Amino acid sequence: WQAGPPAPGPEAPRPAASSQDMYVGCFSDGGRDRTLKGAVFFDLRKMTVSHCQDACAERSYAYAGLEAGAECYCGNRLPVTSVGPEACNHECKGEKGSVCGGVGRLSVYRVEELPPGSRKRRTVTYRGCFRLPENGTHTFPDSLAQANATVDACSGFCSQKEFPLAILRGWECYCAYPTPQFNLRDAVDSALCGQEPKAQRLAEYCAVYQTPVQDTRCTDRRFLPTKAKVFVALSSFPGAGNTWARHLIEHATGFYTGSYYFDGTLYNKGFKGEKDHWRSRRTICVKTHESGRREIEMFDSAILLIRNPYRSLVAEFNRKCAGHLGYAADRNWKSKEWPDFVRSYAAWWSSHVLDWLRFGKRLLVVHYEELRHSLLPTLREMVAFLNVSVSEERLLCVENNKEGSFRRRGRRPHDPEPFTPEMRALIDGYIRTVDKALR
Questions:
Q1: Half-sphere CA count of 307, side-chain side, radius 13 A
Q2: Mind listing the GO molecular function terms for this protein (predicted)?
């Protein structure tokens, strides 16, 4: 058959009236070289322009970029390549008639600055007082030429320049990233960093603040350029920190992780691999909680993540009752549901590890507690196991962004001791069995 002239397509959506005066234009999104790569999140059902603008304002960014109807990116510099308005032809998933980019195209909007007193605005965090690196301030990529810089002025300047660290030496302001020469591991007495004349004479010390913007040296991620030859599982019992480990792996390697399941909440948090079929081999590893022989033998190798069962059980019970970031209510702990849950899940915690030790073909065992306490050495092992070479700068960026958005929200309820002596006897028996198998 022969194609005739293309039928006129539907008219591209226009920016909504309220956001029209904030609209900057349609831009090409250069993947790895994108300029808007801070605070990335997606929303397949409810993305709107203002939703994205608010998220970027909260983190002190000047521009919000929307792509493919559902993706939001933030930054302080406009993308280089401007394209015609017709290329941004996707409607926002949560707002009829408004424009949210296209495939590889960003609709960019300016962000209204939140008033300083606004509750939503992220604050500056004091990281401590540190000795200046060997070659002093030459290490720092940018500085504010202003006498008597305050913490607010310095943080605002460095946020605008997209640096995660604002550094004050006396009244001088510098901006930086954590580097191997300046890794923020050895804090000294804060009194050495005061702005008194005496402290200013001790010019080899500086006060370091975390700005609200993200360290973006490790936020770019993509699918593997060619299908993986080795099919790797990231296996854990539920509640063992699998999602957090995926966040660390993705930011360290620059590649998406996949999942045996589909979780829309996780997709919306930026895990693009959630939507990919788990056998696509386009992801660096695949999350699974399965523990049957057939499911284990489908993988060529696995990172087996193990967490203290007491913590895992509490975390998974919280998730079952109140979602990924909530806490179970008092009534849940006091109901029959909790002892029933402990009986069945404690046995599963044990059989999960034992099955992977027995049927897994090539394993790297990682203890969640070890990952918490010595993040970089453990992450280096994981990345080497995944056969990816990563720069030290990128790993320091992961350390700087280590929490992601996986901390449970709000105050932890005051827990009564949820484990009875009978529960403890049962769980301790399983711990001994697993310990023996690991040894």
A1: 21
A2: sulfotransferase activity
